[in-house]
Fold these 2 entries.
Entry 1:
Amino acid sequence: MEMEMQTYTSDKLRERYFGFTHKSGLRVYVFPKKMSASYALFATRYGSLENSFKLATDAGFTTVPAGIAHFLEHKMFENEDGTDTFERFGKTGANANAFTSFDKTAYLFSSTDNFYPSLEILLDFVTHPYFTPETVQKEQGIIAQEIRMYEDNPDTRLYYETLRAMYEKNDVRIEIAGTVESISEITADLLYKCYYTFYNLHNMVLCVCGDVDADRVRHVLDKVLTEAPRQEIVRRYYEEKKTVFKPRTEMHMQVARPQFAIGVKDGDIPSDPLAFAKKDFGMKILNEILFGSSTAFYNDMYERGILNSKFACEYDSAKTFAYDYISGETDDPDAFFAAFKQYIEDCKQKPIDEDAFLRAKRSVYADFVRLFDSTEDIASELVFNALLDVDLFDNIGVIDAIDASYVEKLLHDCFCEAYFSLSIVSPF
């Protein structure tokens, strides 16, 4: 049943967008924004972690090879009539792309004109799968080359080694593209099984932003989409302990200076969407207080030549995993790790400075507001929030509600040595 269009407004931002559920079952969000480019993002709640699943009506679970979600994303651009999807977009002047993450797969385009014909192409090719044993075999060779290329990339290797150090069983420890061995097990039948399970329109969302009209978007949907059967997906994930799997790992590669990453494993993930959002923003504020470029810790390390400008810290969270990823270059990663742990303990011995908290909170708030200067960022953030069942504008109130005591509690709860792992890439 089609739902009436709902209007979401923000007086603070002086912005608004519209949302409705189309009669096909697809959730749709339209954010009018008169800018040079319009942007559309068609996403499914299906990423590299969904390797064991079933429909509620199935007798047993289906287990699939690692990397199949990414493989499926690649295969969706091929059409049964032999046409090339990128050529179709080229005729409308749109730039198309796609990506697979741990928890979602998304297909997208940007355009300066011909938005609605481009939207029709997007909806059409993503809802018409075509796989054969021959095309699957060809793709296996292409993706195997891609996997080998990333195996030679120090940043990618460091990232996944850090995840493998933190997580013992969670499939976040496996590369999104899978392995050469795992993708060799992918078949056309398995691709169709994954497609018809996860590319059901009830499991998907469309977010568009730009010089667009909600009624015209609905007209394109009516033209292209048919009603999808409502179905319940049961996803099976591994149980994971809160502490890290390995406190330290090291590998050797062709790098000029040792690279390091400190993973801070977060095993306490709120199930309530707004509480989830609050923790996500709270950790971003805490990271700015602890490791921002204006902190005494970073500037001392930088001036002494221990760290350089590549030092970075990012909190990443989803419904089944969360972690802080602190990375950089240093001649002695173990010495820096010891200094990091001592610094954290020193910070715990005193209350968080109110001025530092307010500066960090303003910085995080400004980053959120800055999203609204880009149609691409707006559409991407709409998808992120829609898949978490959060209204995009609710984030303003979420950030406003965060106080210093909440952030201080995050410091004590999350930054414990049992949750730390150090990964190093050293020169040969």
Note: The mean pLDDT is 96.
Entry 2:
Amino acid sequence: MRVYLGAFGDPGHAFPMLALGEALVARGHAVALQTWRRWAPHATAAGMTFAAAPEYQVFPTRERPLKPYEAAVRAARETVPSVEAFAPDLAVADILTPAPALAAELCGVPVATLVPHVHPWSAPGFPPYALGARLPRTPLGRRAWRRFEPLVEKGLAQGRDEYNGCRARLGLPPLPGLHTGLSRRLTLVATLPQLEYPRDWAPWLRVTGPLLWEPPEGERVARPPGDGPVVLIAPSTAQDPAHALLRASLAGLAGAPVRVIATFNGRDPGPVDVPANAVLVPWLSYARTMPGCDLVVTHGGHGTLVRALACGCPVVVCPAGGDMAENAARVDWAGLGVRLPRRLLGARTLRLAVERALGDARMRRRARDVAAWVAQHDGADAAIRELEQLRP
């Protein structure tokens, strides 16, 4: 096949698409990837054709108001020549990246969607996505959440109308229904099924398992000396500019019977007190370091979360923004970790959360079960099988 991939350049969206692209090339398919220029060396090193995504203002400001999807319309038009030149059999667009999907449709190319996190479409009786509320346990709880459904559907309908306005400006027909960013041909949900609430799945939705990728230059960090459990502090690469989670972790675990590996992911935190039982590094490889850890403390970005679980590590999740609150709720529901609300974050509460997670044998066992599932179910392989069936 010839497959055109398009993804928003944030690591949480670019990394899963890079994982899919690498696996497609390894299977013998020809791949083009459109994303931000910062990922060009990795795409070309893996044997993909790189196409630079247009990078300009997306959201309106007071100085420059924008029509809904104005940037997507412009980017779609600019992407059409790239799609035509590559002549793909099909395209796969990230859920937050409409331009390559629209451009492929303008070229008559079938489009699939990649969702690089848990499925964002709430079923009846579910709490609204990203709110951070757990699945209700009782019929009364489900009825309570259903009261919010008209409000949620109103917002989704507005989003559909705005997206259809964008399509009209490109000469494309309107789409019915809600969640118009999800392809009804095929939507790949690249998450762990253990994090998905039970629901009836539409035939065009497939939970593949996570698509795991990281830059190859990261290194494995050796454990600090000693015999205690190893706790990895793995903060977000984009959230928490004050490094509150990092500071609370190092302060709270100072003197605890654990060994701490911490990273600030290249975002200099300034002066930080590093206790004797800890090591702090600018960067590290999660793939090489997490298998030697017993617990991961994280903000709950999907990529870091599923990497930890794939390595058999339970987690402490202190959400900071985006979909992190949703991920924390799923972890709590699945019994795979401890949820620590940001408003309660402090040195003492962080230590208590770590002690609870390390002391829960069932939590550790469930994390090991997830790791065993991942070892038997390759997310990229599952996604490719679905795409191969979609080929015209």
Note: The radius of gyration is 21 Å.
